[in-house]
Amino acid sequence: MIERSNKQWLNDLKKGSPEFNFALKDLRILITRGLKSGFSKWKKLTKEDIEDIVEECLIKILKNMGTYKGNSRFITWGCKIAINTALNELRHKRWGNVSLDELVEKNDTSFSSQSNLTSTYNPENRTIRKFLMSTINKLMQTRLSARQKKAMLAVRFYGMPLEEVARQMGTNRNSLYKLLHDARLKLKEGMNEEGLTKNELFESFMN
Fold first, then answer.
1. Residue 70 contacts by C-beta under 8 Å, 6 or more apart in sequence?
2. At what angle do helices 47-63 and 20-38 cross, to 10 degrees?
3. What are the tens digits of pLDDT across the range 148-187?
4. Are 176 and 164 in contact (CB under 8 A)?
């Protein structure tokens, strides 16, 4: 493996370059090394997973070299792409077999009864928190469409990645953003009618 400057990486990885195969081999080694080091504690990533991620990452790097601005080392830029690819794979492993419909149906009205939302507060704050969650639960049941409620539960309450929610709901990321935006507006309107301020509820749950 040879040391390359940012410019050398870009030149050597150009299609048709006589150094292309050598540079690609070196890049594969460096990306693999970085992933193994950064994700060594993540047992869910197998050797085969890392190999697949590296190959996907190499394709992305070659495809997007035109977007590299030189603000960091080329290898650092490439490793960021690899890390994001690996994180997406981990999210898929966590949520890929989780049914959004079953999750929402099972926990459809569970806001006010979730003890983990209130266990860390003192009795007074716990009572206030319980009231606030009960109110947001009521607003979600009465103000949102079934589709809006499903999206809000998945993204804001359960922390499911936007990409996975969009996939299971048969939509795309931009449409899901719009769905969530409209749902937040409806909830905010309902909160105003209940006499609640953004600081009291919206920031603690919605942001």
1. 6
2. 130
3. 888 888 887 777 778 878 888 888 989 999 999 998 888 8
4. no
pTM more than 0.85: no
Report yes or no: 17 and 11 within 8 Å, Cβ to Cβ.
yes
Tell me if residue 119 falls in helix, strand or coil: coil
Architecture of domain 6-95 in CATH?
Answer: Orthogonal Bundle (1.10)
**CATH assignment, 100-206:** 1.10.10.10
* Residue intervals in the chain for CATH 1.10.10.10: 100-206
| Residue reference for tokens 């809006």 | 148
Within a 10 A sphere around the Cβ of 171, how many other Cβ atoms?
A: 16
Q: What are phi and psi of 98, to 5 degrees?
A: -90, 125
- Token code pair at residue 31: 């990306």
Residue pointed to by tokens 């492993």? 93
Half-sphere exposure of 150 (CA within 13 A, CB side): 16
**How far is residue 186's CA from residue 147's CA, in Å, rounded to a whole number?**
13
Give the whole-angstrom CA distance, residue 35 versus residue 79: 8
> Among candidates 32, 68, 65, which has minimal Cα distance to 47?
32
What is the C-alpha to C-alpha distance for residues 4 and 72, in angstroms, rounded to an integer? 14
Nearest to 134 by CA among 109, 105, 159, 108: 109
